[in-house]
Amino acid sequence: MNKTIRRASVFCLLLVLALLVRVTWVQAYQGQALADDEHNRRNLIGQYENPLGNIIVGGEAITGSTKTGGKDFGYKRTYTDGPLYAPITGYSSQAYGTTMLEGVYKNILNGSDNRLKTVMDTLTNKRASPGDVLTTIDRDVQKAAWDALQDKQGSAVAIDPATGEILAVVNNSSYDPGRITGANDEKAWQELSADQGKAMENVALRKPQAPGSTFKLVTLAAAIENGLVTNIDTPTGTPDPYTIPGTRTQLPSEAGSAACNNVSPRTALRLSCNNVFAELASKLGQDKMRATAEKLGFNTQIDTPVRTNPPSKYPSEKMSVDQVAQTGIGQFDVQATPLQMAMVTAAIENGGKLVAPHMVSEVTDANGNVLESFKDPKSDQVMKERTASMLQDAMRTVATEGGGKPAQVKGAEVGGKTGTAQRGVNNSKSPLAWFTSYGKADGKQIAVAVVIENSDTDRSEIGGGKLAAPIAQKMMAAWLKK
Q1: How many CB atoms lie within 10 A of CB 436?
Q2: What pTM was estimated for this model as a whole?
Q3: Bridge pairing between strands 55-57 and 132-135
Q4: Architecture of domain 206-360+376-480
Q5: Nearest CA-CA partner of 357 in 407, 392, 307, 417
Q6: Containing H/E element for 482?
Q7: Residue 442, phi-psi category: left (phi > 0), alpha (psi -120 to 50), beta (remainder)
Q8: Model confidence at 19, in pLDDT bands (50, 70, 90)?
Q9: Are the CB atoms for 286 and 315 separated by under 8 Å?
Q10: Which of 36-45, 148-157, 211-220 has the lowest mean pLDDT?
Q11: With 69 labelled, which of 40, 297, 356, 469 sits at a CA distance of 20 to 30 A?
């Protein structure tokens, strides 16, 4: 063989080797990456090739699957009482993706999670049988909130303070996720997306708003923790009329100046006297107020496992003295979700211990074997037990003598706090009506937060005690009377 042929042969051999290396690289590495790519339509088809796993409430599935009769997708998702459970399930759509628990546990529910695979599934590269997601939601509490909200636009959340289990998450307005599960549901999607998609807003978990006077619980907690309040029955010395620090603006209270002048913290909470809580926040300062709020969950994304995004907020940027005072009454730039205010109340009821809130108890495979368990959640002592006891005492007065009377549950101890939050420039929008409360009886306990965004009530009659407290009462009664 002459030199030219030999060189040509070596060159061809090198080309073949390079080709083999490239093919191996594409098949072994890039092939898997392409197979796993979220834009690979084969993956989407595979997700709906068989029935999906289910989301469970009280031992019964609130989701299902039905045959499509279509060419690409064998099945599509269905929902039982879709609008009732939409804030929990979210949707699983062949065209628009997944949200809420459907999104968090997508791989469990469609069988692609590696933990579901048997040895035979691994050898044959077959998609495993899907698993299930067991929630902590209580049907009765969920339904009680839903029924009570029907003539109002608002949201409600309930938590078991001792376990952190979320018992209810309800929004009204809501939507039926079953309308958008198919590949050709564009019309329904456009209808739900109209008006900035408010029908699909998860107000309970993902829409922080001014909490109004319910935030006074955080202010009072900070004052007790920092030694500014040592007895809730001692007059504070705070005058009314009260001028906001750093301004010439007087801060009014609904109860009037005579009722709120130089009152005790107990009376201030019962009458919701703005002067007392603005003064407490002013004396504490921004850093101490923020520290207490953050211990209770503000400024933190909370995974329930559905993530609260954006998180509830206590301002981190430097504030002026008048702005700090306004945060003491839940205004200026303080924002909270019903979940967040339920967490505040849960910590107060639970002796100052905040148990991580969660709406899933277990994730299982097709045979019921537990893959994930949330039955031992993290807990933190976020305030002294004495502080929590003093707050409970003051909240009981609100529920027995103040605006929280409509929340009373026969045979149970109830404590609460009302709130009305201004909205819009110069208070141009309808105020938010808030109520947060705890109830306990016979070894059971519950913490609830309700916000009403709009109702047919005359503006002058909008208030947390009138609009939101009756809803909280029905939720607490549904749990405590089981």
Answers
A1: 37
A2: 0.90
A3: parallel
A4: 3-Layer(aba) Sandwich (3.40)
A5: 307
A6: none
A7: left
A8: confident
A9: yes
A10: 36-45
A11: 40
User: In the numeric block, which tokens belong to residue 270?
Assistant: 């019962």
What is the sign, positive or negative, of the torsion defined by CA atoms of 402, 406, 411, 416? negative
- Both tokens of residue 352? 């100052």
How much of the chain, in percent, has pLDDT values that exceed 90? 80
Locus of tokens 């939507």:
175
Which of the 8 DSSP states describes residue 74?
A: S
Quote the radius of gyration of the chain (alpha carbons, Å). 27
pLDDT (tens digit per residue) in 174-198: 999 999 999 999 999 999 998 777 8
d(CA 170, CA 387): 30
Return the closest-CA partner of residue 373 out of 365, 364, 386: 364
Are 131 and 371 a contacting pair, CB within 8 Å?
A: yes
Say if residues 131 and 50 touch (Cβ distance below 8 Å): no
Cα–Cα distances in angstroms (integers) from residue 137 to residues 85, 262, 306, 448, in the given order: 9, 44, 14, 13
Q: What is the pLDDT of residues 109-118, one digit of tens each?
A: 999 999 998 8
d(CA 209, CA 423): 9
Q: Where do the structural domains in the chain lie, given as residue ranges?
A: 206-360+376-480
Query: What whole-number distance in Å separates Cα of residue 392 and Cα of residue 475?
Result: 19
Structure tokens at 251: 């801060």
**How far apart are the C-alpha atoms of 417 and 40, rounded to whole Å?**
51
CA distance 449 to 472: 7
